[in-house]
Amino acid sequence: HNGEVGCVMLGPSCTYATYQLVDEAIGLTLSIPIISAGSFGLSCDYKPKLTRILPPARKIIDLFLKFMTEKLEFKPIWKKLYVYKKESNSTEDCFWYINALEASSSRFASEANRRMLRGQNELEEAFKSSKQHSNIFILCGGPNDILSLKKNLTHIHPDTLFILLDVFNPVYYVNDTSPDGMQDVLIVTLPRRNYAYGSNTSFNNTINDYVAGYHDGALLFGKVLRERMLGHRTDKDYEDGSLNYNPFGNVTFEGMGGRYVLDEYGDRDANFSFIYTSVRTGKYETLLVFDTSQNKIIEKHPNPALGWKGKLPYDEPENSDLNRQDVIVIVLGVIVVVVTAIALIFYRQNRKERLMQKKWSHINPHQIGPLDEKEVSLKIDEDKRKDSTYFRQRGCYDKKPVILKEMKQADGDFTPEQRIELNTLLRIDYYNLTKFYGTVKFEYGVYGVFELCQRGSLR
């Protein structure tokens, strides 16, 4: 009964090897728990007998998805970013972390608008492009990778932010002086370890997180075994002998690598530190901490001295598809089009006026004369026959009798039809006419305009 916890496999660390041991679909049913310092890949997620003593790739996905959508005083919400994948010489952790961000089946690919850059050439093309996808570049490695990468980049926009995954490098807590080239870099790493790194101890630099992980894996096994034997831990699934039960899940303990918090699946939770370079001191400082066990961001610096105008940059470049020269050319082009359009409008309007003048200028004043009342055979309303003034407003045009319709010069006295007619006629230049008195309707449907002289005669 208690003997099932008395045997454990410590290792392996390679994802490919571990997958062959823990995946039940390929026919291997393993009843012995495995403690691995590694096995970061997504294919090893949620395996009931696997305990990963170092943070797996799915914790990195949780970190970035939460950090992108979080709005802080010094950080806007991000929706777009690049993920840079080295062509070769990637470490075990970097290979699987970037692979998880690249995999089309992962949550990161479906929930984040990320664009992959595979190799140095694609990275250089992204920086040269006038339509840059994002200001945010995620990569995995160390400070030397950043410096080597920048040597081949001719122009880096001031709003560019590199997020460097350097999870298992404790050097940032040993030497806090930031070298040149790291001012636009945000580093993601584990918190301080309990082992001395870079000191004059007997370990010197031979110990790292992998070595500490296997050391602490043995501590974990001893802790759980001791608690089982002493009866301090009981579990119904364990008592039933279920293969889905992981005896090393939901465990917290201290080791050489710091404080270990294992979730229900036996995977390591951690408080990832985001470290930046202060523009005031030139030293590394902790900007914030992300707790994967609570999926929560903990701010550590109330007033960070960030190098992007005091705040982290926006993800989308400002005017990324247009440079200054393009903007000038477009503005000048718009001005030319607007001026040309205005000129065409005035030309068409003046042309229309000239055509109207030409159309109405056929009335020859020499052909207008007085009309003998005895020769009038016009149809006149009975009520207007008695109006003597009405008969004075008549004449003869081209030997044809015409009637001059009187129109007052106040808009309020005009009917809607008269206003339309008057407004049309007022736009016409009748050469020598100085006063407008009304329109003249011929018996045959011809319209004309007369000027009434002061002596009362028509011309």
UniProtKB/TrEMBL annotation:
It comes from the Eukaryota. Gene3D superfamilies: 3.40.50.2300. This is Guanylate cyclase. Keywords: Membrane, Transmembrane, Transmembrane helix. The chain crosses the membrane at residues 327-347. InterPro entries: Kinase-like_dom_sf, Peripla_BP_I.
